[in-house]
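Please produce the structure of this protein holding pyridoxal-5'-phosphate.
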Amino acid sequence: MQEAIRIARNHMEAREEEHQEWEGLPSWKDWRWQLEHTIRDPETVEAILGVRFTDDERRVVTETIRRFPMAVTPYYLSLVDPEKWREDPILRQAFPHGDELKISRCDMTDPLCEDTDSPVPGITHRYPDRVLFHVSNVCAMYCRHCTRKRKVGDVDSVPSRMQIQKGLAYIRSHPEVRDVLLSGGDPLMLPDDTLDWLLGELRAIDHVEIIRIGSRIPVVLPYRITDGLIRVLSRHGVIWLNTHFNHPNEMTDSACRALERLALAGVVLGNQSVLLRGVNDCPRIMKSLVQRLVRNRVRPYYLYQCDLSEGLEHFRTPVGKGIEIMENLRGHTSGFAVPTYVIDAPGGGGKIPVMPNYLVSWSSDKVILRNYEGVITTYRMPEESGNTCDLDCANCRLQLDLDNPREFKAVGISMLLSDHQKDITLTPENLERVRRREVAQ
Ligand SMILES: *Cc1c(COP(=O)(O)O)cnc(C)c1O
Ligand code: SF4
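Below is the modeled complex.
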């Protein structure tokens, strides 16, 4: 371990200048070396970061590790900024926090009912046409915010080929399953030949049209994306891979190279982030993350509200923070850089999209919408489907006998909904877009 600490320290320090030299170290870039030197105790973290925990901190961390084990690759730990380690978004995702032992009133051990909705061990069948298939319980790193904390790191429940066989049998006998999502743990922790076998078995099932993999490997162990793995992944037709970047600091040269190799091998890349307090609960961080993802051929897919799993309370943000982030993305940057913000419904209801309200109001023949700039506009339905009003109450079939129908002057949104006024938008003053037009003229 001493050697590993030395290499990791050098790597971390070199990053600030030019780290080509350390990138060139054969052992550092060997994913097996990384896994053999997985960091599992606070003392090694201290040694690598060159920091000292207080006795109290060390005691709390040791206690937390007993309940939820710790595992970090030297690579991922080397991304921590030792100057600001206490606030570091990388360390927060990797290093135990005493708050994990606080069980809040609403915490649940299986908030998403992945076990209850499981017809055979390893399969969660929630949606009509697709299943989640847990094929591994090991991860290169144990994320502190993991929703499957209760399982990950539990060596006894590593699925055997036998168990995977049972899952495959279930999929074979359910022709409605056209999409299989390999998950875990991390499926890319399986040996190449097991993965090759599994993908081959799935591809051989006629009704399985889509195979996808959920993996954090490109983030925490990019060196695992070897030539061998690429060969396996490119041998079985179209594979979709959703990875899990949460912060722009994770998008290192090594990570981006791993993404490039996957993309060039034809793997379709997406990203799922979790909204985490103290890590990425900021519109600017999220915007920079999604833009970097897109630059690296990764389509932001979901932004998850943090689940109600045990010990995650300190990571949870108000839903309003997520909506604020979405408000700062939609319209402000490329449409395909905008993920869908979802709450995975407690009780197994599945993912529910949540977003700012763009539909402001509607009537039988119009909808009133607002855009990201605050412009309120009107969209007219194809056919008049309700009672249109020309303010001629005397001749209206609804027989309203008003003395002076003209006293009804619509304003604001009701004006947009009305049939007798011609305005179709409400526009805030001093819009940059409008000013640009004026300049252009
Ligand atoms: C997320 C999830 C899926 C996949 O959902 P998509 O919205 O299609 O990405 C499938 N099954 C389960 C149990 C899930 O949690
Ligand atoms: S990689 Fe995924 S499954 Fe593994 S610990 Fe992290 S969040 Fe959990």
